[in-house]
Give the backbone structure.
Amino acid sequence: MPKESCHIKYRGFSMLEITIAIAILASTIAGLLTGIIDAQQSTGLIGIKNQALFYTEEGLEAVRNMRDKDWNNLVDGTHGLVVASGHWTLSGTADVNGLFTREISIATESATKKLITATVAWEFAGKTGSVSLSTYLTNWMPF
């Protein structure tokens, strides 16, 4: 029985195969880079939102401090906050701290109760957002 020789000649990759391989590689790299960039922006946005939340809570605490000094300091309307002579005071319609804009809204519910809403808005990486917190304050020292 004679042996049959089996000679297979490989001539290399065709242009079509190379083009497909390059396209797959380019798509994979583009996807990875997009994922990395999105992750960095999301991480930055989480940090910004946490700072905004802190700034919002600070606004509510400032108004609470103003209430403790004098209930009549809480004037209905939309205000900003500033520290003057070491004390919080209402000022203008908003206050700006870096990329954050804070508004404090005060509304009378009754003679001894007010609704306080602190809202902080920002713009980061072409995206805007805001955080808002509300609380009721009462005149616990009416006399």
